[in-house]
Request: fold
Amino acid sequence: MITDKFFVDYDYVSSPENINTAANSLSDRKPMLLALEYIKNIVKKYADKNRYNQVLDLKSFGIALWMIKLINQRNLTSRFIIEQRDVFENEILRLIKNDTESFIDYCHRAKINVFVSNNIIKIPFNFFITYNKKISGFKYRLIYQKMENGLIIVDEGQIAHLLRENFVEKINIIYNSINSDQAAQIFKSYQSEINLIRDEFIKINAKNEMKLGDVDFTKFPPCIIEYLNEIRDNQNLPHLARFTLVSFLHSIGMSNADMINIFRNVPDFNEKMTTYQVEHITGIISGTEYSPPKCVTLRSNHLCYMDDDPLCRKINHPLEYYKKKKFRKS
Amino acid sequence: MEKLELRDYFRDYYVKNPIKPPDLLFQREIGYIPFNGSMVRHRMYNNNIEIERFVKKIVPRHLYYSSAYYRHPEITRMQEKEWLGAELIFDLDADHIEGANKMTYAQILDEVKKHTLRLINVLMDDFGFTEDNIHLYFSGGRGYHVHIESDAVYQLDSDARREIGDYIRIEGINIDDLKNLDDDFFNYGILKKLNNYISEFYENIDENIIKSILGRNYNNYINYLQKYFNGKKIIDFFTDKSGNKFKIMDSFDAKNKITYNRDIFKYIIENFKKGNLAEIDEPVTTDIHRLIRFPLSLHGKTGLMVKPLKIDYLRDFNPLNEAIPDVFKEKEKIINIKINKFEIAMNNEHFILGNGEHKVPLYVAVFTNAIGVSDFVT
Ligand code: SF4
Reply:
């Protein structure tokens, strides 16, 4: 059985009644206090660009999610989800290793088909290819899977990664479905405290905003915008995306110093490494100025975000997108 | 005039034969190319009666439906259509077959059939689809269409479909990745086939093949083997003593800076792919808004039917006999062949037609007219 220490129960978290009861209980104020404390700490750590992935219990997690919705700051939301994503992954990995029954129970409740027998875990191929996208590395390409009859045998690390991506998707769906007025109602008595948190966050965020220099952001292709957004949301970018981003920004004339500043936002930022990489790609170290890969390459690495963009349909290279837009009359 | 006469024959077909609408017709976008005019899209028909009425009235040259289901298939803007899901589609066509331009139509059809059979095997063995999920059609042109209808695929986005496409086309296998896989991986799917292929490769080759692969490096290779492998001429670099694959791949001739196994592997993988991949048109598979030929409609460039086929029957199926509409078998027609010589076997008859007028069965008249090598003579 899942204990209430393990924080994910999607039905529970999406119900306003549950959250209201938990947040305004007179007999047990602990979850509410914990949630507040947690959010304050994320904001504090955000200022220093540190991570804060503490395990929350079910009630505190639910309250925190609803409160985050009420605060309604994009960067705070994504930070919260990323922190909890990592917590989730650790916790689920623990269950997979030590408590198969709870693991199976979780999947069952999350409506995910997994088949476990004799320590072998199998999942349907469609689950695999739905959630492998943001995970880089050959271990996550379909062609290298142990697939038979529509099922794939995965190891513990793989299933934890895939479930993590599924978790993020589910939490985003719940987050988007939360009604802000309802949230305001639930946290009525905490309104001033929440306002303080929001103000504090906005202040910090303004300091952290990345500067793009003189280049024209509005003419960027969707892929580059997505990479920048991910960095702004403090996510780690796959290697090829970093490469593309740097070579792209370099090609359109951004300075190396500005670029390195942008990368300050990623969680594993390392000034020396980043400087080295940027200088390598831009030719200072290597003597070769690299240019961004073609769209087909990005596409086959799941790094193309063209969606319905009409210009993307006509071009083969991200730089072509920029040039076409730039010289087009607006 | 010409085109309109062809249209009359198509009308005759549509009047006498029902088309076969997909499930949830009212959620599908319908598109068509008329005999005079360009592509019309974003049509919606609520039921079989409506679409039958439309087809008999308009008599399209080409008729399509969307593999996607939409809440509002009739809205022009993609974003507002509200995509609900889509079948998974595979298009196998002569365009993607190597050397197709040197083959006859019948040879092309045979070659594409081979790839279609491979595809279906992978779909069943590896992906676990059953005959109920796999809907197979002769395209009416130069190939086959395979539609997967299954809850496992409807929601897949473009990226996920690309993974499937890459799998079918055996894209992205790389020597350095293989080295990092445990033996167990080679008991499944494509890697199992590759594993067997390598064993067979070494059972069946002689020195000449190695020679042709390595070219100028062959002598170095022989010297290298002399030094490290007691002068054996052929070494399976990929299998160690216990039969495990890909563990000793780094056979490297430091002096000459050559890694022989990489060249050999390149050769192996190329040939392995040739014999095992299914050449699908990948953009069709990854496009979740695709229009695809309507079952039992006529292909406007051949006059042949888009014909549903039982999987078991594919091997024996001959489109040039069996995709001819009955209504085209009943009449004869005089045509004028515009090229020097046209040759084809249709409906179990062999036709060799020189430049000039011929009286032929209507299906030959329609076919030659539709592909543009003849005019009708009235
Ligand atoms: S089509 Fe090219 S430019 Fe557009 S998003 Fe994809 S990779 Fe970027």
